[in-house]
């Protein structure tokens, strides 16, 4: 097990909104459970979790004097070595709490960065995490940056047994940032080449997005038969995964699994991982996977909408978006959303497969809307052209004419029609 840890969830009770924008209040216990799940994702030993209501924020320590004293006594009694505060802490607040509690204290940003540091698999992902972690640390008065030389993963905010807390030197940090940025330029060049290669494959891209642990990877595995890491853990997927899939209609698509979104994601990470979400912007279909069994499902949806907006996707008006209400198998029958679905909503269980066929049919419909129907007459020797049409379009009918030519009715996108004509110089029938 990891370090003995106390998870603290501050709830600021005086939060109010002055405009008419709807407020999605998060359930206090659900927020604490999410913080515990985040901590469990890096194998911390959770001794206790507690919600603390704050009538006002103390600028120096966030919590009031009585709360700090009470928690300090508990920390000493239970030999707690790490406190996770599921809230943003200023450098001064963090330092003062560490002094008062005589243990390491990290905030929500540091915890998420730590998880990203452990989970990133690709070279680009690791560099992006290191950049985000350094940018975060640059604002801290006292932090250790030796994690960048270690092999254990994580972002290094929790340190290790006996590891000294060193004063950060801005010049050293900036030098490290510059080296990482140069490495990232080279990695991005390679990724751009890979993306250009993928773009030459004329298959529609279907991107899975959603709040972390909503079931994206489980759905991805169900549809593709792949073995992507999918467990009941927050941020089980960090690096994008893409697979070719044949739909029941014989359409070929590229299905992409992406990093899960989360509320209050560190600003540095949003910028760092924007590149890993770029396929969402250019996707032909965007599948928003929601955990409808979660208490905070509505608030999670708003978090996803906010991130998509930052990426330039207008959730309310973009007809590429399909909202997948996942984990319906965990709901009581009277709470099932199946009978009250909107046009681009599908209720499914990625675990049992319930509703997945309906989802694939809806994906086919959306892709087909952007296709035009053509009829081609092919000679018996034009087997390659016939195969190409089956692979890259949606064939709706075939027939053999009296002169033994093959008549193919097919729906093609404008891009694929251009590619077909360029390659085979065959005109469609009028």
Summarize the structure.
By secondary structure, this protein is of the alpha/beta class.
Report on the architecture of this protein.
- By secondary structure, this protein is α/β, with parallel strands linked by helices.
- It is built from 13 helices and 13 strands.
- It has helices spanning 28-40, 65-77, 91-101, 108-119, 123-138, 170-200, 216-224, 267-272, 278-282, 297-310, 356-369, 383-392, 414-424; strands spanning 4-12, 45-54, 82-85, 104-107, 205-210, 241-246, 252-257, 285-291, 321-326, 345-347, 371-378, 394-400, 406-413.
- It has a six-stranded mixed β-sheet with strand order 6-7-5-8-9-10, with helices on both faces.
Properties at a glance:
single chain; 430 residues; alpha/beta; 6-stranded mixed beta sheet; 4-stranded parallel beta sheet; 13 helices; 38% helix; 20% strand
- The chain-level mean pLDDT equals 81
> Helix tally?
13
Radius of gyration: 26 Å
Question: Structural class of the secondary structure composition?
Answer: alpha/beta
Tell me what portion of residues adopts beta-strand conformation: 15-25%
Structure summary, number of beta strands: 13
What does the overall shape look like? elongated
Instruction: Record the strand order, biggest sheet.
Output: 6-7-5-8-9-10
Strand and helix layout:
Blueprint: E1 4-12, H1 28-40, E2 45-54, H2 65-77, E3 82-85, H3 91-101, E4 104-107, H4 108-119, H5 123-138, H6 170-200, E5 205-210, H7 216-224, E6 241-246, E7 252-257, H8 267-272, H9 278-282, E8 285-291, H10 297-310, E9 321-326, E10 345-347, H11 356-369, E11 371-378, H12 383-392, E12 394-400, E13 406-413, H13 414-424
Parallel strand pairs: 1-2, 1-3, 3-4, 5-7, 5-8, 8-9, 9-10
Antiparallel strand pairs: 6-7, 11-13, 12-13
């Amino acid at each position: 097990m990891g370090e003995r840890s106390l998870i603290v969830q501050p709830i600021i009770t005086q939060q109010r909104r002055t405009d008419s924008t709807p407020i999605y209040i998060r359930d206090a216990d659900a927020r604490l459970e999410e913080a515990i799940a985040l901590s469990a994702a890096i194998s911390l030993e959770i001794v206790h979790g507690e919600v603390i209501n704050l009538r006002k924020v103390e600028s120096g320590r966030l919590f009031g004097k009585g709360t700090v004293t009470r928690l300090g006594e508990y920390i000493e009694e239970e030999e707690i070595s790490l406190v996770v505060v599921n809230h943003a802490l200023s450098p001064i607040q963090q330092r003062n709490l560490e002094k008062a509690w005589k243990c390491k204290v990290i905030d929500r940003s540091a915890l998420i960065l730590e998880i990203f540091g452990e989970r990133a698999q690709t070279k680009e992902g690791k560099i992006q995490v290191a950049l985000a972690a350094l940018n975060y640390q640059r604002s801290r008065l006292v932090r250790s940056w030796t994690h960048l030389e270690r092999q254990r993963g994580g972002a290094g905010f929790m340190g290790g047994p006996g590891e000294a807390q060193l004063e950060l030197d801005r010049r050293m940090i900036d030098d490290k940032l510059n080296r990482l940025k140069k490495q990232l330029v080279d990695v991005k060049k390679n990724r751009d080449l890979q993306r250009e290669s993928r773009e030459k494959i004329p298959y529609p891209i279907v991107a899975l997005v959603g709040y972390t642990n909503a079931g994206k990877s489980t759905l991805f595995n169900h549809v593709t038969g792949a073995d992507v890491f999918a467990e009941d853990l927050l941020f089980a997927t960090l690096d994008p995964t893409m697979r070719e899939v044949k739909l029941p209609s014989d359409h070929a698509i590229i299905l992409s699994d992406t990093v899960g979104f989360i509320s209050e994601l560190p600003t540095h990470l949003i910028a760092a991982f924007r590149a890993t979400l770029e396929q969402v912007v250019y996707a032909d279909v965007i599948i928003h996977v929601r955990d409808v069994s979660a208490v905070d499902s509505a608030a999670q949806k708003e978090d996803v909408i906010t991130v998509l907006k930052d990426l330039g996707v207008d959730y309310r008006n973009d007809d590429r978006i399909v909202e997948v209400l996942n984990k319906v198998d965990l709901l009581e029958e009277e709470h099932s959303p199946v009978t009250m679905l909107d046009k681009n909503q599908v209720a499914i269980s990625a675990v049992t497969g319930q509703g997945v066929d309906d989802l694939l049919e809806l994906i086919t419909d959306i892709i087909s809307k952007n296709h035009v129907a053509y009829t081609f007459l092919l000679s018996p020797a034009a087997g390659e052209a016939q195969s190409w049409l089956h692979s890259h379009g949606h064939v709706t009918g075939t027939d053999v004419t009296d002169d033994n030519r093959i008549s193919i009715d097919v729906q093609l996108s404008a891009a694929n029609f251009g590619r077909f004509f360029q390659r085979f110089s065959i005109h469609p029938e009028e």
